[in-house]
Design goal:
The complex is a heteropentamer.
Chain A: H1 23-67, H2 70-78, H3 81-91, H4 99-113, H5 127-138, H6 180-187, H7 193-198, H8 210-222, H9 229-248, H10 258-263, H11 267-275, H12 285-305, H13 312-329
Helix pairs in contact in A: 1-2, 1-3, 1-4, 1-8, 3-4, 3-5, 4-5, 5-13, 8-11, 9-12, 11-13, 12-13
Chain B: H1 2-13, H2 20-64, E1 70-77, E2 80-84, E3 93-98, E4 104-114, E5 119-127, E6 132-140, H3 150-153, H4 155-159, E7 164-165, E8 171-173, E9 183-185, H5 191-208
Chain D: H1 2-15, H2 28-33, H3 38-61, H4 71-93, H5 95-101, H6 112-122, H7 127-157, E1 159-160, E2 163-164, H8 179-219
Antiparallel strand pairs in D: 1-2
Helix pairs in contact in D: 1-7, 3-4, 3-6, 3-7, 4-5, 4-6
Chain lengths: ~350, ~230, ~190, ~220, ~450
């Protein structure tokens, strides 16, 4: 008694309706949101920056392709997440970095940050930041040698250090400008907010222009691509904490204003594009607040009292590590259950 | 039945509960033998180890105090410096260096404090006549290889301490921005470690400078066995 | 007081016993599968570390200045027997505490973090208060590392981690990543 | 001959099949802490070798006299004695290396591999086997230490046993000689070891299968 | 964009302004296809199938045998036990068989097959028994009458209504809540009922209020049905004292607990029934069926079904005799389009796929929806990226992301112990919201089945 009458009918269970957004589309939004900041990076740092972005993307995508099972590969490639990781990593690198390091970084990002965890969605640490942490730990000098932002005329100028042979050091000829955060920490010099805003300061490729990063972030917020609680919590905590420190230690120029805290270094880039990475941030709303507060607190703590001028990278990684715990202890109260 | 039989048989053969005396005796024997071995090796290596340590210390002191041929250890007790010969070191000890004519030259002062990674131990030579630091040696540190470890690998940096006035606190400034006599160039990329060294030296100096005797009344070199 | 704070922060974060000194790796890799257990083990270890710091200081001040060559043997014997004694008294006095923490105690004695703490504390010439602070920092740091690790491992249980990778190799790599993240604390409070 | 070959097997098994580090995952703490250079790794390996072989010899020689109730304490006393001997000898002979290995020489006592071998093997076998087993195990341990130390030194410093390999222009991978490098390198080595074992098993299965098929075919 | 809406929940607007529950999703309504189409009567066909177990509870027991002649509205099966209800013949005709017949889900169930008498007028004849005056009934008589009427919850669950009305002595019903939310997309049968027979809806409310002793009556209607609201208000008189409550348009507004939350701002504790907090919830369809039964004596023999979806030629709202084969109903509406890939009974969010078009319309069938390739073939399933959209969709504040992961790993105990999977009502909001197209509800269903089976086994 097989039912042969309606062979065409599927028996897919409800719900049959799906909202329009898909995961690859969400990734596309992030690409779009990163466009202005990337364009600014090219404007300020020229062809060298472009080469770095390309190599780090290549490193990431190639690693994903090599280490993913054949049947999973098509998927893994179609969601463009590996390329996105590569781009994000590239944006956190200094413009004078030897290209082979950028490639290595992209490769480590995906290899250590994604593939061994089981691919998209399973990783607990932000892959791009893991790659950057690896590079920073491995090549501390190359990763902290910054070039000054150039103008449009310098577009075709490539730093000689970019082209160092694999495994060899770059020659950092003219490169030795301090980032605004470095100036603040070691020289007690403040950089004008307008420069931070527009981006003609030294720093990582993608983190210089606060304005364009804000554009990208607001775009993502409007597209509902990112959880708004995380940026809100980070901004609130970071500015309140640095304001408190400023008020307590007022006389010392070592303590920056809240605006400087927000607009300098990788805080904006990290907040909008890395801390909000859904895979590695908590699921629950309360968890997102805690996560953001943790990042805001750690970043200011490391910047003011730590050994490094910038702490966004480690703040996010550390909170990534705590995310499973946060998630576990912030489960929402179930409807109709008291506790 | 057979099972029970086997069990009783087995227990009668194997598990004789050893008396507690036997346990104590075997422990004691083992302890005794181990004690003998340990004491033997200790005696055997004692001299060499002592010499190694003394040599290491002497070398360090000689390094930070140029032109020194003799040294002795001074202990600050009851508000005065007393010459000590015993083994061991602690924070209340410094070293006095003397030239071949047994004339006092300067002090080697040790200090420690937090560095980038872990505690840094510093020894520096101090000429009280000129109020100058004349040498610096890192005794122990776990600073980052390639970066922080330049505080003892970068000879330019170490060299800065070879003739440095310390009447005012030393300051580490960014490379090339040195304007004052008491300033030194920090190592690029290892500012924290450089500053840590400077801070440790300042702290140790400020602790010791009021303790040092008036110029001219430095402790005299006492006769030492192995010098 | 500043020094004490620094000792604590340094052992807790900068020079975490597990992630920077590789001490206590056996439980860190072996027992960190479950959050509850990890946390309790961390607490129990902290307790033993404090006892150890106390014993080490007593031994160091009153015994070892006369017989330095007995350092290793006396540390082992004294710490092991003290912990044994405490275990027995907890069992008698508070069975519930024993159930939650006490069962770990014999396991902890063989943990190299314990001996490591005694040796580090004496090598650095810590006094009693410094030693206790050091022990508290080390214990808190161990607990922190354990709990983070356990959280991560529980999470990866339901993830898609390839079968070949699962196991000690994976745990080591996670530990490496954690250790890398903790590098951010380098220099904390040492520059100001 | 037969006994000889099996004693030899006791030794071989520790080097590869039952390698204490790669297979049994024991002795992690010294494994990671002292392998930032090849020379440190080798010295640590030798120290462990001496302690393990020495204590296995003693334990196995005196096993009849060791009461079961206090055996663990006795093992620890024996091991600690050997470790003290090593500690002082190194301090006297190689003060520079002793300084680098620091607290990790005394920590050999807490290496569970050593106590484990006493409990699992030396206390149950005669002297010859016990010593061979100890040689194999500590040999395997040394191989692992050496492998890890070499990788970390070559990448992290660009040198091998302190000899510069790639010239001054080499960019050192600093992280390799830092703690994370230790974890990651060992993790990746273990991963490689797992992968290799798995591939080997698959290969052997394949060979066995094709043999069987050949046999079946031949039967027809 | 709805993320921005959730900003408002942050500040938790005063209750009066916010007649809704937290979380939920906003699927497109798709109601314009049928919202304005008056209810049509489907002509009688030749064959009807009445499964004995089309309500929740024990299947009814046939009281007729093959060859018996039955009249339209005549009892053909009586309830077996308390949680069971009666069945009546939808047509005048002859019992042609009693045996296994394919059910909508593809399984076989016991059913009574009736061959319609082609010459009968198919006029419903009121029987004497049902002409009792409802005003004079005791509550026992009322409950018995409802059980014999065969009325079940017409919202889709098909739970025998009389069970709902049997209130234990220690409990009192203070509020009668009538569910006219109709939050499922496409469906407009309740809407049309409210538009075309508002006076009957109100009449039903009055009957039930009296019988239950409820003080207040509220009818909740989603704001996207202004015509329903205005029609009801038109027939509403002051002495009726019935509240018509417009509700925010949000899925699943019509779920019992959500409706209670929206209207009374009360959270029904998990594991409790509405009556435990003094509320009785009924679908408008049920209310109308009650009114028809007590006023005209007509048992539940027909219901309104929405026929819609992109795969239907002529969408419609139809009065269908229960037991009509689905294929005949579809044929009446011009049949299915070529591109149809799937036919659903009920709404697109919670409905179930139909395996066999020869299966009949049941008491609980609120709609027949046909979908094409477009709706059925979503993008491929991607890994969960923990975007938390499902958490924000779940009206029960569960953690669907986690549940799906655990379900995939088959860690069912964890799902129950740590993440309360049993509280899930499978409304499908999480799956709707998932950008990775993960069948979360299916994982949850599997887990629940598994856990129930384990419980039964142990």
């Amino acid at each position: 008694m097989m039912n042969n009458k309606d062979p065409k009918l599927l028996l897919q269970s409800a719900p049959l309706l799906r909202q329009e957004l898909t995961t690859p589309a969400a990734m596309k939004d992030v690409w779009i949101a990163l466009l202005p900041a990337t364009a600014a990076a090219l404007w300020f740092f020229g062809l060298g920056a472009l080469l770095i972005l390309i190599t780090s993307i290549a490193g990431a995508v190639l690693t994903e392709w090599v280490f993913t099972d054949k049947d999973k590969r098509r998927f893994a490639m179609s969601d463009t997440s590996a390329g996105l990781t590569g781009l994000l990593l590239g944006l956190t690198l200094p413009p004078g970095l030897p290209l082979w390091m950028a490639f290595l970084g992209g490769s480590v990002s995906i290899g250590l940050g994604k593939v061994i965890w089981g691919g998209l969605g399973s990783n607990l640490f932000n892959p791009a930041l893991l790659g950057r942490a690896f590079l920073l730990g491995t090549f501390p000098i190359a990763m902290t040698t910054w070039g000054a932002a150039g103008g449009p005329g310098d577009f075709f100028q490539i730093h000689s250090s970019n082209l160092a042979w694999p495994f060899m050091q770059g020659q950092y000829d003219a490169l030795s400008t301090a980032t605004p955060l470095g100036l603040m920490k070691f020289e007690h010099e403040t950089t004008a907010l307008s420069s931070l805003f527009l981006g003609n300061t030294a720093g990582s490729i993608g983190e210089t222009s606060s304005l364009l990063l804000l554009f990208g972030g607001v775009f993502l917020l409007f597209r509902r691509g990112i959880e708004w609680r995380i940026p809100a919590a980070i901004f609130l905590t970071a500015s309140l904490f640095s304001l408190a420190m400023l008020l307590i230690n007022g006389a010392d120029s070592n303590y920056p204003s809240p605006l400087f805290t927000l607009f300098s270094g990788g805080l904006l880039l990290g907040t909008f594009f890395m801390a909000t990475d859904p895979v590695t941030s908590p699921l629950t709303p309360k968890g997102c607040w805690i996560f953001g507060i943790g990042i805001g607190f750690l970043v200011v703590l490391i910047r003011l009292y730590g050994g490094l001028p910038e702490g966004m990278l480690y703040a996010i990684l550390l909170m990534n590590a705590a995310t499973p715990l946060i998630d576990r202890y912030t489960q929402p109260k179930i409807f109709g259950r008291k506790s | 039945m057979t099972d029970k039989h086997d069990k009783t048989k087995a227990s009668s053969i194997v598990t004789q509960e050893p008396s507690s005396t036997r346990l104590i005796v075997s422990m004691a024997v083992a302890g005794f033998i181990s004690g003998i071995i340990i004491i033997a090796i200790y005696m055997l290596t004692f001299e060499t180890i002592k010499e190694n340590k003394a040599r290491e210390l002497r070398e360090a002191v000689f390094k930070v105090l140029p032109d020194v041929s003799f040294m002795q250890k001074l202990h600050f007790i009851d508000n005065k410096l007393i010459v000590v010969k015993a083994e061991g070191m602690d924070d209340e000890m410094i070293f006095a260096g003397y030239d071949p004519q047994r004339k006092f030259i300067g002090y080697a002062i040790q200090g420690k404090g937090p560095g980038f990674q872990d505690t840094i131990h510093v020894l520096f030579g101090y000429l009280s006549s000129k109020q100058n630091v004349v040498g610096m040696e890192i005794l122990d540190s776990r600073e980052t290889p390639g970066l922080g470890d330049k505080i003892f690998k970068d000879m330019d940096f170490v060299g800065e301490f070879s003739n440095l006035p310390i009447s005012k606190d030393i300051k580490a400034v960014k490379k090339g921005k040195k304007t004052q006599e008491n300033e030194i160039d920090a190592i690029t990329g290892a500012t924290i470690s450089s500053k840590a060294v400077v801070r440790i030296i300042n702290k140790a100096f400020n602790k010791w400078s009021p303790r040092l005797p008036q110029q001219g009344s430095e402790p005299v070199l006492e006769k030492q066995d192995n010098q | 007081m500043d020094d004490l704070l620094w000792i604590f922060i340094s052992t807790l974060l900068v020079n975490n016993f597990v992630l920077a000194y590789f001490l206590g790796l056996c439980p860190f890799l072996g027992v960190s599968g479950q959050l509850e257990t990890s946390f309790r083990l961390g607490l129990a270890t902290t307790f033993v570390l404090v006892i150890t710091a106390l014993c080490a200081w007593i031994l160091n001040t009153y015994v070892l200045i006369y017989a330095p060559y007995l350092r290793l043997i006396s540390f082992i014997v004294v710490i092991a027997s003290t912990v044994q004694f405490i275990e027995m008294s907890i069992k008698k006095l508070s069975p519930s505490l024993f159930k939650s923490l006490g069962i770990f105690l014999p396991l902890i004695t063989t943990n190299c973090a314990i001996l490591g703490l005694a040796i580090f504390a004496t090598n650095r010439g810590y006094g009693l208060v410094e030693g206790l602070t050091f022990a508290l920092g080390a214990g808190a740091g161990f607990t922190l590392a354990m709990v983070l690790m356990a959280g991560i491992r529980e999470e990866t249980e339901i993830n898609d981690v390839p079968a070949l990778i699962r196991g000690t190799a994976f745990n080591l790599i996670i530990a490496g990543i954690l250790s890398m993240a903790f590098m951010g604390f380098a220099g904390l409070f040492s520059s100001t | 001959m037969a006994t000889d070959s099996s004693a030899y097997e006791e030794m071989i098994k520790g080097l590869w099949r039952d390698n204490p580090v790669f297979v049994q995952v024991l002795g992690m703490c010294p494994m990671l802490a002292v392998t930032n250079s090849a020379i440190n790794a080798v010295v640590m390996g030798l120290a462990t070798f001496f302690v393990l072989v020495g204590s296995s010899f003693l334990v196995s020689s005196f096993k009849q006299w060791i009461p079961k109730q206090v055996r663990i304490s006795l093992y620890i006393i024996i091991i600690a004695t050997f470790v003290t001997v090593v500690d002082y000898s190194l301090l006297a002979l190689l003060p520079a290396i002793h300084k680098e290995l620091g607290a990790f020489i005394p920590l050999i006592v807490a290496n569970c591999m050593i106590l484990g071998r006493q409990e699992a093997f030396a206390s149950k076998h005669n002297v010859k086997y016990a010593v061979m087993d100890a040689v194999g195990m500590s040999g395997g341990f040394m191989i692992a230490l050496f492998a890890l130390g070499s990788v970390r030194e070559i990448l992290g410093v660009g040198a091998f046993f302190g000899i510069d390999l790639f010239g001054t222009n080499f960019e050192s991978w600093v992280i390799m000689i830092l703690p994370p490098g230790g974890f990651l390198t060992l993790g990746l080595l273990l991963l490689f070891f797992n992968w290799f074992t798995e591939r080997r098993r698959e290969f052997l299965l394949k060979v066995a299968e094709s043999d069987r098929m050949a046999y079946v075919d031949g039967d027809k | 964009m709805s993320k921005l809406f959730s900003l408002s929940s942050l500040f938790s607007l005063p209750f009066a302004l916010n007649r809704s529950f937290s979380h939920g999703v906003h699927p497109p309504h798709h109601k314009d296809q049928t919202a304005d189409l008056p209810i049509q009567r489907v002509p009688f066909v030749s064959r009807y199938i009445m499964p004995l177990g089309q309500h929740i509870g024990v299947p009814a027991e046939a009281v007729v045998k093959t060859g018996d002649l039955v009249k339209r509205g005549e009892l053909i099966a009586r309830p077996k036990g308390f949680i069971s209800t009666a069945l009546h013949s939808p047509v005048t005709g002859k019992i042609s068989a009693i045996g296994m017949h394919r059910y909508v889900d593809g399984s076989f169930r016991q059913a009574i097959e009736i061959e319609a008498d082609p010459y009968a007028t198919q006029q419903f004849v009121q029987s004497k028994k049902n002409s009792l005056n409802v005003e004079d009934m005791s509550s026992e008589q009322f409950i018995d009458a409802v059980q014999m009427s065969g009325i079940v919850g017409l919202g889709g669950a098909a739970f025998p209504s009389h069970v709902k009305y049997s209130i234990p002595d220690e409990q009192r019903i203070t509020d009668l809540l009538v569910n006219g939310a109709e939050c499922e997309p496409y469906l407009t049968n309740d809407h049309r009922l409210m538009v075309e027979r508002p006076e009957v809806v109100l009449r039903g409310c009055m009957i039930l209020r009296k019988q239950l002793g409820a003080k207040r009556v509220a009818i909740g209607v989603e704001k996207n049905k202004p015509e329903s609201i205005s029609q009801l208000k038109k027939y509403l008189t002051a002495e009726m004292a019935i509240d018509i409550v417009p509700l925010e348009v949000k899925y699943p507004q019509g779920a019992e607990k959500m409706l209670i939350k929206s209207i009374y701002n009360k959270e029904l504790p998990a594991g409790k029934l509405p009556r435990d907090i003094g509320i009785a919830v009924n679908n408008v369809g049920t209310i109308v069926a009650l009114a028809d039964y007590f006023d005209h004596g007509m048992p539940l023999i027909e219901r309104i079904v929405t026929l819609a979806g992109p795969g239907v030629h002529e969408p419609a709202n139809l009065i269908v005799p229960i037991g009509t084969p689905i294929r005949d109903v579809l044929d009446f509406a011009g049949g299915l389009k070529e591109q149809t890939r799937e036919v659903i009974s009920g709404g697109p969010m919670m409905g179930s796929p139909i395996a066999d078009l020869d299966a009949p319309i049941l008491k609980g069938t609120s709609g027949i929806l046909a979908f094409t390739e477009n709706e059925t073939s979503g993008p491929p399933e991607y890994p969960c990226i923990r975007c938390a959209r499902c958490l924000e969709a779940c009206p029960y504040f569960l953690n669907p992301s986690r549940l799906a992961l655990l379900g995939k790993a088959r860690l069912f105990e964890d799902m129950q112990d740590k993440y309360n999977v049993m509280d899930c009502v499978e409304c499908g909001a999480c799956t709707y919201a998932c950008p990775s197209n993960i069948p979360i509800v299916q994982h949850i269903r599997t887990a629940k089945d598994n856990l129930r089976n384990r419980k039964v086994e142990s």
